[in-house]
Amino acid sequence: MKNLVNLLIFQTGWLASVVGAANGYPWLSLLAVALLVPLHCAVVGRACKIDFQLMAALLIVGLCWDSFLQASGLVRFHQGFWLGNAAPCWILALWILFSLTLNHSLGWLRKRLWLGLLFGAVGGPLSYFAGEKLGALSLNENYSLLVIALGWALITPLCCWLARIFHRRLQFSELAEGNGV
What we know:
This protein is 72% helix and 3% strand. It has helices at residues 2-22, 27-44, 48-72, 89-99, 113-134, 144-177; strands at 75-77, 137-139. The longest helix has 34 residues, at 144-177.
């Protein structure tokens, strides 16, 4: 049940962020995160502690990746800029929401990094394609989706590996506290 709620939280936040950006309301993504992250924490309990650590790490990954896409001209985000060609706020909100899935609804990918490669190669470009169709971004080159697929084929296993590390930290800290796993 927790995984289903986690997936619904991500999908709700994704939709609010992308539709908000497409319609000139990129701040809607920040509101979604402000409402959905506490809901996520209420559902997952103590596990939220590692989600915050993973969130910080993935914000850096996401800032670098999506800023690269924007600066290279492969993708043009339409709203929510806060610093030059850096990734807009609504994209960073999506990275926060994505980070919340990796130890929960997408937790099965932590032990199957090769599957994370396939999942990223397909899911990454589909997300950008959907974002373009909804009007939140433009894919500027014919090969943009190919570059996005290759990037996400590397990024997703990296994110899953980081999730595994943070998940192990939680397990070890709970064992050290005598709480079990």
